[in-house]
Amino acid sequence: MKTRPTTSLILSICFAGITYGIAGAAESTVPVIKTFDLETATLDDVQEAMRLGELSSVELTLLYLNRIAAYDKTTGPIGLNTVPALNPDVIAEAARADKLRRQGVDLGPLHGVPFTAKGNYNFKGMATTDGISVWADFTAPYTSHVIEALQEKGAVFLGHNNLDTFQSSTGSTNSQTFGLARNAYNREFATGGSSGGSGSSVGANLTFFALGGETGGSVRSPSERAGIVGYKTSQSLISVRGLAPLAWDRDVVGPMTRYAVDNAHVMEAASKEDPANVWSSVTVDEGRPRPVNFASQATTSSLAGKKFGILTNSVGTSDTGVAGAIKQVFAEAKATLEAAGATVVEVTAPPELDITFTGRRRSLPDTVLTPPTRKLYSPVTTDLTGNMVAGSRAYAFKTFLDSMVTLPGDTPEQIHDKVVARISPVTQLPQQYRTSIAEKTTFGPGHPDTVEHFQAVKYMIHDYELFLADNGVDALIFPTVSNKTASGLTLPNLTRALINSFSLPAVTVPMGTVEVSGSVEPTTIQFVGRFLQDDKLLALAAAYERASQKRIVSPLVPPLDGESFELTMDSYVRANSPYSPPLLVVKKRATAKKTAGVKRLEVGGNIRLKADVATIRAWVNGQSVPVAIKGRQWKGSVSVEEILPYLTPGSKTAELSVLAEDSEGNTSATVLEIRVPKKL
Predict the structure, then answer these.
(1) DSSP states along 537-600
(2) Is the pTM higher than 0.85?
(3) DSSP single-letter state for residue 388
(4) What is the rounded distance in angstroms from the CA atom of residue 235 to the CA atom of residue 232?
(5) What SS3 state is found at 59?
(6) What angle do CA 223, 43, 533 make, to 5 degrees?
(7) Helix ranges (DSSP H) in 340-447
(8) Of residues 169, 172, 175, 194, which has the active-site annotation?
(9) For residue 201, which of 60, 206, 414, 575 is within the disulfide window of CB 3.0 to 4.6 Å?
């Protein structure tokens, strides 16, 4: 739908017109403000297009649905399989966002913007599968806190991303429920995991942004393979309520975007406080303020005067192969930082930054005679999920399942029996954890062992920050991976345990490309900051991104029809004009006809009485179908030869998307499965 441009924009256009008149030109032209391209569009670009009325949320949502139909369906010619479960109400959500805008309500940079979330995030009415077959029918009775927080800011939930079975792998994404997710740059390569569906869908531009999740590398790994900005947040910053857990003391929400400033906008909305979050009763470092103003800091940040530390041996020693290529690209990133006014030095991590450290910590006050230990792990010197003590790890699953199965009037025993029934067949969770739930021996944040565990983590964080202070560095940097192959990747020494077990924020940013098995793939630099200083870290990442501009577009998933258009002065209508979207009737069966010797596939329908329709556009499996309007009838027709490569062999159906627009720019859309002729 269309709204007036901002005052400054109107004035600039008017001045341009005056200048043109002085030059003496007789004919008038419509000034073109800029060209909108979906692949490279930022949140600012999207909101500008929506303010000018050249784009609606319904249209934007349909563009992504078309890309999913063309590039993501498992039976399609590319079949990335990253968004296997779509929100059935997504068009209605987008229409509500458009209606609010029409009423003068602006919810901010995310208003009307589609996003996806990993398949362990609850969304009411959809199954939270967690990638396991025994939960394929596990319908969520409520929506996770973080998705609700984003929807409150106008974001539109598009659907669930594929994830690795039970979130188990950082190398690839292959779920029992949805199968193998494919890489956005080479479908035969691994996506990284366990948020591979989230990362690859952003890299392939199948969604504007996605939510991943990380316990031990599961945001950063797929972000590396997709060449995007992936944010592993400080523990406790974003609520994990409504997410199927893995190891609750390290599970975090991870926003994944194509640009750092866009990530900052998502972080600003997603980090809304939640009193019911499991972390709300955990004290990691009392009194430390929460980060604020992500977007303003990311937009105005500079590298001048900043100092970065490279951990010794984190870059690797090889000068050949993929490892050598990553090392060379990282050297170029280092040069970019220095050219922008930053200082980069090599630093050596002290023993206390290793998770295996058992000595007395530097930051421990002399008055503390007995050092606290990481009581939630056995042994305490490991960061492996499977070493979390049974009662604590099982607590998160019990809490999550309680929220999923409880009905009004249930007794505690009835709830317990339903929880046990749901967790018993989950063989991916070792028996000792399931037994702890069954025997009611789980324990949470208030338990003495948990309290002591987080006291130990506090001193780990303090030791890390003393190390940064000793070297005068603002953040650490290193390649996200030191090596990778088509099927896997290698994380640099120390980085997994340091980032995940020390509760630190980390963010990936594209820094260039490397050739892997003959295929060009993006690679990223990683910035690691201080606990709960996520805003400052993301600002540094945004400053580097502006200085480097190294993101590449995937050639595997080129633009489709309608993804590029001009923003012009006269493309808006009065803000108070009535909002009445056009209405169509769509036939659920396509037909095959021969016209002038050419066999054609036809779709069509009716325009409802009194509907003012200016244009109709249609797509079959994401491929554009020309449409003609005659009276109250509309018909789309495309040659069978042209459309056949995009129809699944042997399938009786295809996905038809139809977008109608009236003379004032109001839009409506329909997406449905249609029957296609058996013989084409």
Answers:
(1) HHHHHHHHHHHH------TTS---TTSEEEEETT----TTS------EEE-SB-EEEEETTEEE
(2) yes
(3) B
(4) 9
(5) helix
(6) 60
(7) 390-405, 412-423, 431-438
(8) 194
(9) 206
Q: Which of 329, 333, 320, 331 is nearest to 513 (CA)?
A: 329
Put the strands of the sheet holding 506-516 in their side by side order.
Answer: 85-86, 156-161, 114-118, 209-214, 252-257, 229-232, 506-516, 519-528, 475-479, 307-311, 343-347
Pick the catalytic residue: 218, 221, 501, 624? 218
Q: Specify which of 107-121, 275-289, 562-576 reaches the highest per-range mean pLDDT.
A: 107-121
Quick one: which of 483, 509, 468, 469 has its CA closest to 337?
509
Whole-number Å distance between alpha carbons of 200 and 187: 10
Is the Cβ–Cβ distance between 512 and 333 less than 8 Å? yes
Q: Which amino acid is at 293?
A: N
Q: What's the burial of 23, exposed, middle or buried (CB within 10 Å: 0-12/13-18/19+)?
A: exposed
The amino acid that residue 455 corresponds to is Q
Q: What are phi and psi of 237, to 5 degrees?
A: -75, -45
Nearest C-alpha neighbor of 143 from the set 119, 157, 123, 120: 123
Walk me through the domains of the chain, giving residue ranges and CATH numbers.
580-680 (2.60.40.10)
CA nearest neighbour of 51 among 9, 83, 79, 13? 9
Q: Which residues contact 587 (CB under 8 A, 6 or more apart)?
A: 603, 604, 605, 674
In terms of Cβ atoms closer than 10 Å to its own Cβ (0-12, 13-18, 19+), residue 105 is exposed
Q: Note the pLDDT tens digit of each residue in 311-329.
A: 988 998 899 999 999 999 9
Two tokens, residue 602: 């036809």
Do 240 and 253 form a contact (C-beta atoms < 8 A)?
yes
Interacting residues of 281 by C-beta distance below 8 A, sequence separation 6+: 445, 446
Q: Which tokens hold the place of 273?
A: 């406080």
Give, as one character, the DSSP assignment of residue 136.
T
Could you give the CA distance from residue 184 to residue 205 in angstroms, rounded to a whole number?
A: 9
Q: What is the β-pairing status of strands 114-118 and 156-161?
A: parallel
578 backbone dihedrals φ, ψ, rounded to 5°: -60, 140
**Could you give the percent of the chain with pLDDT greater than 90?**
84
| CB of 136 closer than 8 Å to CB of 126 | no
- Cα of 267 vs its chain's centroid, Å: 11
Quick check: is 194 catalytic?
Answer: yes
| Tokens standing for residue 596 | 């002038």
Residue 18 confidence class, pLDDT cut points 50, 70, 90: very low
Q: Report strand pairing: 307-311 vs 475-479.
A: parallel
| 218 catalytic per annotation | yes
Neighbours of 27 (CB within 10 A): 5
Say how many CA atoms lie within 13 Å of 87 toward its Cβ. Answer: 28
CA angle 16, 22, 24 (to 5 degrees): 115
- Judge whether 314 counts as a catalytic residue: no
Q: Which of 2, 118, 306, 536 is catalytic?
A: 118
